[in-house]
Amino acid sequence: MSGNTFGKLFRITTWGESHGKGVGVVVDGCPPKIPLNVNIIQTMLNRRRPGMSPASTTRREPDKAVIMSGVFDNMTTGTPIMVMVENKDADSKAYEPYSNLYRPGHGDITYMAKYGIRDWRGGGRASGRETVARVAAGAVAKALLDRENIQVCAYTIELGGIKAEERDLSVADKNMFYCPDMTAAEKMGERVLRVKEMGDSVGGIVEIQARGVPAGLGDPVFDKMDADLAKALMSIGAVKGVEIGSGFEAAAKLGSENNDSITPEGFSSNNAGGILAGITNGDDIVVRVVVKPISSILIEQKTIDTSGKASTISTEGRHDISAIPRINVVCESMVRLVLADHYLRQQAIQHHALK
Predict the structure, then answer these.
(1) What is the mean pLDDT of the segment spanning 250-262?
(2) d(Cα 138, Cα 145) in Å, to the nearest integer?
(3) Count of CB atoms within 10 A of residue 58's CB?
(4) Could you tell me which of 39, 41, 37, 86 has the C-alpha nearest to residue 63?
(5) How far apart are alpha carbons 159 and 181 in whole angstroms?
(6) Which pLDDT score is estimated for 61?
(7) Cα(248)–Cα(267) distance, rounded to whole angstroms?
(8) How confident is the model at residue 318, as a pLDDT?
(9) pLDDT, tens digit (0-9, with 9 covering 90-100), for 34-73
(10) What pLDDT, in 10s, does the model give residues 290-329?
């Protein structure tokens, strides 16, 4: 199956299914002598692990990372890095009643249209479980970016219609939704519990910020930084929209309002989101993603079976109420992968320019 590899110089290939033996990733192109050990990867995986919030599934996966190759004496060797995570708590029996039904909002019907076969156990390759591999790869990218003091963080600015009015990032890790507004976080928790009782799900918006990114990253015209970020984030199953900087608000602004004036001290604003003409300008990169409501809900929905006959479905099982907050670290990881790849591309350009 194609489409499992991402990146050019810093390149990853993910593998595995939701109810298979495990999931994992091969990272190729990571430079040697980058400090890396399993604890660095595990710290990141723990942030997306199930059961960390009331919005999360009750599936209990330890998500214990095992580094299979590419690291020696807690240093990368320059060879491919393989990380594996075993599936320990998959319950395929819960999906047997739906094996011949197409679940609304899922990839069941499109996978069947493309391949003529599908893994109905938890969604197979289309499951959010695949993002374990992305987070493991993102941890490797973080180790590289840390050396260059490039920091990436993701936080929730909307969940279930509750919007964060504050942007105090110092409190984002002090609540279960990684929200920079403690008052909004409390309301989000109440909203999630009410929706859970209804048997429904909610969506939201996650904002990702990258600081310390040097000017000059991004390759026009088809490998622009904003284009690659959009592709990376849209490749996450629950993400249905991406905006950078002022985003869709720019449509209602005048050019005089949306342009970021340049002063001897730097840009006077950041409507561009840190990117001009597809190249980073040295300012903070600011990206927002729209996260759709989880598709598996208890409320009965209309559907068809694999023969095309009308039916109904109520998806029992262990499902998230929202992909937020577990998706936040996935978003961070995808941004880090793009930055790591473009950082190495720029290093190659500068190396050749010096010759």
Answers:
(1) 98
(2) 10
(3) 11
(4) 86
(5) 12
(6) 72
(7) 21
(8) 67
(9) 999 999 999 999 999 876 666 655 556 789 999 999 999 9
(10) 999 999 999 999 999 999 999 999 987 667 899 999 999 9
Which amino acid, 132? Answer: V
Question: Which fold does the domain 5-353 belong to in CATH?
Answer: Chorismate synthase, AroC fold (3.60.150)
Write down the domain spans for the chain.
5-353
Per-residue pLDDT reduced to its tens digit, 66-106: 999 999 999 999 999 999 999 987 667 778 888 999 999 99
